[in-house]
Design goal:
alpha+beta, four-stranded antiparallel β-sheet, 25% strand
């Protein structure tokens, strides 16, 4: 793999002028490491990181990968992205784009040595920047100790700003049957299966953080007149299961979560290997 990556870097370096191309192994969530190329221009404070693993897995040749890397880099260097990149170092601009994300604390100890966080249950709440791009998508940037230092702001101040913006966002809770019906799968509402509800945000990106919205959880528990088993489906959403037999249900669900994580969920998107319990009227147990 090292020789393959080095070959791609050499070809990228040949194709771009006044830019330094370097291979880098990037630490992602839950111990996942990805191969990337970092492209640094002489007069830019921002160096885009372009990941290679998916292109390699798709069987693209080194020439094709190098050309795709250059295409992505040239898109990055357009006027719109450059203007945002320059503003990334200014807290007065970036503070309007802060949000919160939850990750597994135990699986990310090394990463959390560089990222300030608040503990929540056995999870970690970190600050993210969500920046809109010119192709109707968003760029997600972790707020590190180094970035806070550049901004000249404390974690506490940035965290309070992120909470304020987070509380303005809407928490979306949808019956799983309704989602399946929208996707063209019908008949589930007649099968007598326990009701499951999806809790996320509007974008369905990193929406598991909406479990921090205890007002919605409490309101939902009261409406269901039940406690809630919170199933960590992924970092993007959780499932809510209204229950009355809490302890027995939790024991059964933990094994299921571990199996689903092992076989169905990408390693980087795993949130936890066990369920959580929110009790109506008293909160998290």
């Amino acid at each position: 793999m090292t020789n393959l990556i080095n070959d791609i870097v050499k070809k990228v370096q040949y194709l771009v002028e006044n830019v330094t191309a370097q291979a880098q192994e990037v630490d992602k969530l839950n111990g996942v490491k990805l191969n990337a190329i970092v492209l640094s221009a002489e007069h830019s404070n921002i160096a885009p990181i372009i990941y290679l693993d998916s292109m390699i897995a798709d069987g693209l040749s080194t020439d094709s990968i190098a050309l795709e890397v250059v295409r992505i880099y040239r898109e990055y260097t357009d006027e719109h992205v450059h203007s945002i990149s320059d503003q990334m170092l200014q807290y007065d601009f970036m503070k309007e784009y802060l949000s919160l994300r939850i990750i597994n604390q135990a699986e990310n100890r090394e990463l959390l040595s560089q990222i300030p966080y608040e503990s929540f249950l056995d999870l970690a709440v970190i600050i993210y920047v969500i920046l809109p791009t010119n192709d109707e998508t968003n760029a997600y940037i972790k707020v590190t100790n180094q970035l806070l230092e550049v901004w000249g702001v404390s974690f506490e101040d940035a965290y309070q700003q992120a909470i304020m913006l987070f509380n303005k966002e809407e928490t979306v809770v949808t019956n799983m049957v309704d989602i399946l019906n929208e996707l063209g799968f019908s008949g589930f509402d007649d099968m007598g299966v326990p009701p499951l509800y999806v809790m996320t945000n509007h974008s369905r990106m990193y929406g598991a953080s909406r479990i921090l919205d205890t007002d919605v959880l409490e309101s939902f528990a009261e409406r269901m007149n039940a406690d809630l088993v919170v199933i960590p489906s992924s970092t993007h959403e959780v499932l809510l299961l209204p229950v009355t037999e809490s302890v027995q249900t939790i024991e059964l669900m933990n094994d299921m979560v571990k199996e689903v994580n092992r076989t169905e969920v990408d390693a980087e998107e795993r949130l936890s290997d066990h369920v959580y319990l929110y009790r109506k009227g008293t909160g998290w147990q």
